[in-house]
Amino acid sequence: MKIAVTGSTGLIGRTLVRSLRTDGHEVLRLVRRPPRTGDEVEWDPKRQHVDTRGLQGCEAVVHLAGAGVGDRRWTDAYKKEIRDSRVLGTAAIAEAVASLPDRPRVLLCGSAIGFYGDTGDTAVDETAPPGEGFLPSVCVEWEAAAAAAEEAGIRTVFARTGLVIARSGGAWARLFPIFQAGLGGRLGTGRQYWSFIALHDHVAALRHLLDTETLRGPVNLTAPAPVTNREVTAAMGRVLRRPTAFPVPAAAIRVALGEFAGDVLGSQRVVPAKLLESGFRFAFPTIDAAIRAA
Fold it and tell me: Taking a C-beta distance cutoff of 8 angstroms, is the pair 165, 156 a contact?
């Protein structure tokens, strides 16, 4: 299969590209500069430009690009970058694939469980409405930006991603060194739910979404049983064999992270109903297994 991928230098993108190529698929990488190799296609999400000539013959497009939510403090300017990188980029990709004479069978777009906002102790699946706040509003616009592809009859899937457990990127890349040094602990009360997924399972789920013709619309990419931050802390201690006696007070998190602290301290108990119904099997379904895998 010939597959185009945006965000191929990120944690998930580069792992997906490696997985696809290992299995013999032809992968094109969309880059924000003139192409240097035959497997690159130029695009510019800010200008909403895509070199559609490079997408000819693609059976699938995977769109994962977007500014990191936790990479910087949330100033008004960076919040705009978070929003624009997702909404403008998705609109550009959707319109590009819709314009092709030979359209791909599927457009798989990244999204996030931030769509649901703070769910407290309530477990939610894909039927739940959006929450309130900045990230839910971004997710709503993000997914709506793919309308051109859906209207063109392309099967469009939104991978609502949870917290990906990996050593080389994402939130856990920051957590592992802290816990390995014996300085880890719960965040705030520790009662907030974290909906996690092992990197291996996340990439396997993306490939499942590409291959499963019955799946469309939002699909939660989280492990079957979300756990609290307190349980995550205990699991990190067990797996790494380190003490976890240094809790971080909520006030300190708010000082350090500003507005983003509300999402770190918030609770999201999200379950992957559509993945499970479609027959997907997790290799690392528990928090201990996912941490060990990383």
Answer: no
pTM of the predicted model as reported, rounded to 2 decimal places: 0.94
Give CA–CA dist 46/86, Å, rounded: 10
* Rounded CA separation 36/217 (Å): 34
- What pLDDT, on the 0 to 100 scale, is given for residue 257? 63
* Opening angle at CA 228, ends 222 and 233, nearest 5: 105
- The confidence score (pLDDT) of residue 169 equals 84
β-bridge pairing 123-124 and 106-112: unpaired
Q: Can you read off the two tokens belonging to residue 16?
A: 């997906």
Mean pLDDT for 65-94 is: 91
Treating both helix axes as pointing N-terminal to C-terminal, what angle do 229-240 and 170-180 enclose, rounded to 10 degrees? 60
Give the chain's domains with CATH numbers.
Answer: 2-293 (3.40.50.720)
Q: With CA atoms as reference, report the closest residue to 290 among 191, 219, 241, 222.
A: 222
pLDDT (0 to 100) of residue 255: 64
Average pLDDT over every residue of 102-131: 97
Judge whether 59 and 1 are in contact, CB under 8 Å. Answer: yes
Hey, which residues does 89 pair with through a beta bridge? none
